[in-house]
Amino acid sequence: MTYLRYSDDVETLEDDEQESIDGIIKGMTQESEVVEKREGHAVRASHAKSTACVLGEMTVADDLPPELAQGLFANGGTFPVAVRFAQGPGEHLGDRVSTHRGMAIKVFGVEGEKLPGHDAPTQDFVFASGPTFPAGTAAGFLSQAKKIGATTPMPEGVKSAASSIARNINKVLNAVAGGPSPTLDFYGHPYSHPLDDYYFSQCPVRYGDYVAKLGTFPSSTYQDALDDWQLDPHQDEDGFRHAAIEYFNEHDAVFDLRVQLWADAETQPIEDASVEWPAQASQYRTVATIRLPRQAAYSPERVRYFDEVMTFRPAQSLAAHRPLGGVMRARLQVYQALSDFRHRENGVAAANTASIEEIPA
């Protein structure tokens, strides 16, 4: 198969893109202010409620074919990783409000040219459930942020009802249309086990000489056994966290890290993150394995460090894996601004963690 090559002109900026980005920052900061007033503490503007905070290793496969042996994955080897699993909303809600989920990965011991402003030997990958981002562009991101901001002051019961409606419609679509709507899944994710989910970059990144989307896929028999697991949110409003803690008390979690290379500029757009790249154009292919061993997945000191101190951002990246597209260009600024707000409000110094040894046990 022939894959398209990366070049500096693969991106096309939107008209008034910076205006959209400024609007996202303003709106999401206001949303964070509302949550801070209610909770008495500033939290992440998305993925605020952590599910598991764990350490492990990522092993890059030996002898990858040339198109896959790029950037961080150019040579076989093993890297320490820190991984934070979390629920989607930018506030602490009961698990009745089951929306999209996040899996943020920080890889340590990474050498090579970094993006401007990133000076630690690390590579961050920020993934979420669902192969696409509902807002495909920076302008769409702004529109979505406004809608979420409008719902932030609403009672939790209203958010639970909206999540339930989205989830139930998606069940019907899955049965009669052959697949769920990624947008509805964003607002109403199934009550499935967080360690049995697929997680995706949703947006493209540079992949050395190529371009790719990335994803993680559960790959242990113990995770396979979770396929029929369902949370009863009426019994446990923190059930996803408790399920993850229980799992890590007993078992390792293993994920294949896969990449889907850019092969068709028409069906695999760079500038519209709402479009799923079809498998007919190129398949996801495994480049590494992430192994998260059995451990205490929610120890107080480590959780505090993950939630309050450590940052996960697309900007903390090798130049070889530079984020691409309007949504990612927005995230480069938005994540920084919201992180600055959160740490400033809480009086906590943010850490661009350079070594896994800095993370509490």
TrEMBL record:
Query: Gene3D superfamilies from the entry?
Result: Catalase core domain
Q: Which SUPFAM superfamilies match?
A: Heme-dependent catalase-like
Mind listing the GO molecular function terms for this protein?
Answer: heme binding
Q: Which PANTHER family match?
A: DOMAIN PROTEIN, PUTATIVE (AFU_ORTHOLOGUE AFUA_5G01990)-RELATED, DOMAIN PROTEIN, PUTATIVE (AFU_ORTHOLOGUE AFUA_5G01990)-RELATED-RELATED
State the name under which the record lists this protein. Answer: Catalase
Q: What is the lineage of its organism?
A: Bacteria, Pseudomonadati, Pseudomonadota, Alphaproteobacteria, Sphingomonadales
